[in-house]
Amino acid sequence: MTFAASSLASPPETARALDLAGAGGRLEVDDAAALLAAVGPDLDRLLELAGAMRDAGLEASGRPRVITYSRKVFVPLTTLCRDRCHYCVFVDTPGQLLKKHKPAFMSPEQVLAVVRQGQAMGCKEVLLTLGDRPEDRWPEARAWLDDHGFASTLDYVGHIARLVTAETGLLAHLNPGVMSAEELRMLRPTAPSMGMMLETTSRRLFEEPGQVHFGSPDKDPALRLLVIDAAGRERIPFTTGILVGIGETIHDRAESLIELRDANERHRLDGQGHVQEVIVQNFRAKPRTAMQGAPDADLLEYVAAVAVARLVMGPRMRIQVPPNLSDPAEFDLLVRAGADDWGGVSPLTADHVNPERPWPHLDDLALRTAELGFELRERLTAQPEFVVGAGMWIDPGLRPAVERLADPATGLARATPAAAPGVPSSGDTPGERSAHGGPTARLLNPDRPTTPSAPAAPAAPAARSASIRRLAETAASDPLALDDAEWVSLLEATGADLDALTETADDVRRYTVGEAVSLVVNRNLTSSGLRSAATDDPVTFTLDDVGAITADAWDLGATELCVQGLLPDDVDPQGYLDIVRAAKAAVPGIHLHAYRPQDVRDLADRGGLGLDGALAAMRDAGVDTVPGTGVKVLSERVRSLIAPADLAIEPWVEGITAAHRAGFRSTSVIFYGHVETAAERIAHLRGLRAIQDQTRGFTEFVPIPLPGPAGGVPLVAGRVPIDEHRAMVAVSRLLLSGSIPHVQIPWTRVGREASAVLLQSGGDDLGGTLLDGRVKPAAGIEYGLELPVAVASGIAARLFRPFRLRTTDYREPPAREAAR
To answer: For a surface tag, which of 216, 506, 615, 735 has the fewest beta carbons within 10 Å of its beta carbon?
Structure first.
């Protein structure tokens, strides 16, 4: 994109500031403000200068054309805070915590459970984020700290940071807000880096009633600048930055950047300042906040701020932009503007500060970065220059842990951490550890019997409850640590045991995928109804109808059309592809979620394409993702008894694995409450996890009960249906954690009220709206059932959880005008 054709004109002082920047001159506040106002050709030139400065800096650092990121675990240590920022959804009140069944602070056990899962996924940074000094406002926070023997929240932060590194070898990055010099000094030995956003120097936003920082004592700009200065005196690699679009003026932005540069320069050692990276973050409005109606930061103003940050801070500074707060189509502008770091990105945990904005998949981020002409490389929480200069910047007690994770030549992250005595290796990944023969054995032999532990003598109720809780907590930390018999005991839990199980599973959900409840706006189309000519049967349709059905769904707000079902034997198998082409021709922006392994096998066999050929033809026709349905339980015994017409287990596994390897992501399911045993359910979950270890293709898991008033056959005699479902959801969350991220609640089977209960048992997604639309056909088990967006949002609101619309593959829905 270029801006030469813009009808807007920059102020005349912008040209003078561009000439100064082009000559390598030092920019001051008025110069930076003039550059921030650049539009049209001047904006093009601004980006060109910033990009060239970035490239020169990377060349001088020995990593030309490299953009970095940190693979992290995001730990929200407490969501209590004494501030009242008008755009924040991170914080809770004590009353909200009670309604969410959420603790005032994460316990050490909860932290380590999440961190160990992140370690198994290759994470090296543990981001500890929390509210500012909650004990100064909330007696509940003070009471928790007193009960646990901590003088302050910061005292607890230091304890957790030391514990994380001692137990796992991972490195903490501390983000606890305003700190005194003494507190910074106290925390320095616990973490290689710390951070606090300046956000803005605007005193108006802090002092004027109704503005975003009014009533937030820690958002005093002068106080925050003192913290940044103190971090420099203490030689702490420090992350800071500005927030664009919260009501500040262009002059405020310019002043903020100059203040950061000057603070960095005041504390240089051998030419290196302590500010390790400057984040330029764009404001995104969030529901349930005072600023929910405010516009998001203007894209071009944001891009100009990134470029000016580069020119003000110079070639050696890392300029970071959060990739989840921008559409991937906007990455090109951000990189042109001189950005060279994506910040922390987690393969496990949500962005708890921006729960409505999921992280990009790391593979996708690497691909998009490569398309922009750069290589994506992993770094540690401390930027490479500070790792190489550890003797000057990092506490001696932390240097062995840093050296274990760092490439000594570049300061970037090692591909494989070096061994260290007493520290668990992150090389033990979920795909390399499994009971009873490993994941490959279970994948190829899903009905293979396992050897459970010898049964113990019956325990007293209190002892059994403690035992179930311990098993659940062990599973929360390492899902592969339990054997099948232990998983069965969890699945059969009742009463207080079941409560302990669901509480633990919901904590795992909360501290990994986050609090958001998601939903996709979609419509089903059962492809079995395709006919070559129109009929009077309302369940049938022709190819001419497909376009109208798709356009109607789109006009009603749908982003997905889900298509599945075997074509009749007398219908040409090319009809599978024709449906997709007709839908895409009508609405190119619609997401086609189409064809189960059994449908694909039919296309492959009757169409003479073979499995790989059928998948390639589907991709060419316009299929985007595939349903992982068409299997009840991964057991031939179960299939032969209840669904002999289903695809056999081995071909189903072959089909879904081939789809993943062909680049399709898919859902995964279990249909429970038939004749399967608890052990067969556990074997099914292990089998799905084994496939995921190989392909990483599953986006979600849906535990679907047998329909009917009784809710299926109970595993435990007398256990009511809702408890059957609670146990299934909770065990699914625990066993699949760190593997398949999302657990979807099938509201069409359990109802809306039960769905709310199951969202508190480990679930995080409500599936789809299932719009019936105004165009035929009228078919399918779920026809006539709809979940309007407002109703789904209301369910989330009653749980005090944020709600977000998603795409089929859990991304942000695109702008409608750009997608059709």
So the answer is: 216
